[in-house]
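Comment thread on ticket #2218

A.B. wrote:
> Attaching the input chain for the structure job we discussed in standup.
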Amino acid sequence: MKIFEEIESEVQSYARSFPRVFNKAQGEYLYDLEGNQYLDFLAGAGTLNYGHNNPVLKKSLLDYIELDGITHGLDLHTKAKGEFLTTFNEKILKPRKMDYMVQFTGPTGANAVEAAMKLARTIKKRPNIINFTNGYHGVTLGALAATGNVHHRAAAGTPLTGISTLPYDGYLGDDIDTTSYLDKVLTDSSSGIDHPAAIIVETVQGEGGITAASICWLQNIQKVCRKHDLLLIIDDIQAGCGRTGSFFSFEKMGIEPDMITLSKSLSGYGLPFAVVLIKPEHDIWKPGEHNGTFRGNNLAFVTAKKTIDHYWSDDLFANEVRKKGEYIYNRIQKIITRYGEGNFSSRGRGMFQGLNCVDGNLANKITKLAFKKGLMIETSGADDHVIKFLCPLTISDQNLKNGIDILEDAIKTICIEKNIFDEEIDYFHEDYEVKS
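C.D. wrote:
> Ran it. Output below, let me know if you need it in another format.
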């Protein structure tokens, strides 16, 4: 369609990587206008954890619309909101012994981050916030200041202030604990780091290259926060909602954040929805201090409630996600072994994993060829050098295998072209199975 070239802004990005016109989607499949089928390992950049047009969620949404349920209600009390809050409290928060207030922000994850940082500065009466190298928290100005990628930062058009960036886990090498450095600069009044209000951190850095922080490192971050009177903000926008194998990415780590940001797959259906979870003692907002016309998506309340009821009422779904995560990890390890440990390495946790190709050009060639073979998968990292696995958590075992088969076939083809390994050996015709 020429209309995209004629009047759509040059800011478009995913459309450049996947140049097709799509018109239908179901489960883990996308279809273009010509009827071509693609396995979706992109899943709305982690927004479609439960697949496209999930039939269970779709029915609840259609029923609600058919009954003329409220679509837009500002922050008014509605039946849909009340039912979501009740379900979220009873099936997510209470079983995990988590006590939080729920703030409905504007519909994007960036808005949730903006709200959390704004509240932290208000509480502590300090402007500075600590973030980490390769972090990504959004592209509105406040969130962008806490985002490391120069491509995004360069578009700000104004100085980005109020943030001090320190090294993430492993940034200076596996043998250096960067929390010791963090503690040192916060202890030293001459370090040049203004005493912050909070630390904001992703437990797994999505756009930053699927780098997963260790449990010990995260626990030490919390200790630093407590020692220096800082608030701890966990950005769980992409790593949360089951992606790492539990609803929150930090469960059973001994981590108790002061605030948690959630969005992406919170609605379950790809509908815009974002919240900040706030410890009750920190909920000092005055009415309307953080505002927005779309801070109450009632359609999202309906599908989010149904998502929790259907997938998070027990441990069955989480166990399935962990098993699939193990399968992805094992397949990645075999790819690394076959095509050279110097060329590839693995990173991530659960079903939030990546194949580090070291070279962004190599990763780009692999993902482009995979798309031609029927697999949508993107890259991440500072140089787009990490192939990012973001398939729906509900993907069938067979299609999980099929998708990785396609990726491995593309890797094999590209590696043959680069003469990375002996082209005589046929690695691709093994019978893989997802272990149940």
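A.B. wrote:
> Thanks. Noting for the ticket: The longest helix spans residues 316-339.
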